[in-house]
Amino acid sequence: MLTKRIIPCLDIKDGKTVKGVNFVELRDAGDPVELAKLYAEQGADELVFLDITATVEKRKTLVELVSRVAAELNIPFTVGGGISSKEDVSALLAAGADKISINSSAVKNPDLINELALEFGSQCVVVAIDTRNIDGKDIVHTHGGRTPTNLETRAWAREVVARGAGEILLTSMDHDGTKAGFANKLTAELSAELAVPIIASGGAGTMPHFKDVFTTGKADAALAASIFHFKEIGIPDLKGYLKEEGIAMRLNNVK
């Protein structure tokens, strides 16, 4: 049985870790290098680093900060934000990233997914899909969730996998920061239909929410930010709980 993954997310703005609600009202959540080191020590399975304003501000992800974070990690490390070319990816991988995440640039130029998968391998390419329900339809958003597109989430997810994405990071903007639970229905539909892992993001607030997204939502991994940053739930405690609930976990550093 494949183990499920717990993935803390560092949302970065101006070199600091931040967290908001529904993608707005950001507040400082601490030093990203220190948080990354802590999460690796606590038994996180992977880490995601998202430079959340890189696309909006039309600049590249902070490569130097990526290098400093990577130096503290012994777990897979995914980086996203402002990535729009093979050269960007090469620089981030050289700085220590294991995978990259693209969203706005993939919507703008879907061929980029094919190019990156061909150049670096599908296992390196994560396509992030920020989705919000508008008038009963799940719609893809770009630019840190600021800009709605004309893409329907399920159809876009199918397309990115066909183009070579190795994973999908699915963030429900309706659930993000609310701590009311993940978008289990949509997550389950994509998990059932697509042959790549689905990372569920947005809405984690309690330990049972993680159990629900792994069982009802059929997710391969669950990503969360504020509950870890503000020490509301500890990763070792969460993994211990999930193990007791019968969910396969990698249990390094779990008492």
The percent range for strand residues is: 25-35%
Strand order of the largest sheet: 1-4-5-6-7-10-11-12
SS element count, helices: 10
Number of β-strand runs: 12
Overall geometric form: globular
Instruction: Write down the Rg.
Output: 16 Å
How would you describe the overall organization of this protein?
This protein has helices at 32-42, 63-70, 86-95, 104-108, 111-120, 153-163, 184-193, 207-215, 226-229, 235-244, and strands at residues 5-13, 16-21, 24-30, 47-51, 77-80, 99-102, 125-134, 137-142, 147-152, 167-172, 198-201, 221-224. Helices cover 35% and strands 28% of the residues. It contains ten helices and twelve strands. The protein is α/β, with parallel strands linked by helices and 255 residues long. Residues 20-27 have low confidence and may be disordered. The two termini are 21 Å apart. It is globular. Helix 1 packs parallel to helix 2 and helix 2 runs parallel beside helix 3 (86-95). The protein has an eight-stranded parallel β-barrel with strand order 1-4-5-6-7-10-11-12, surrounded by six helices.
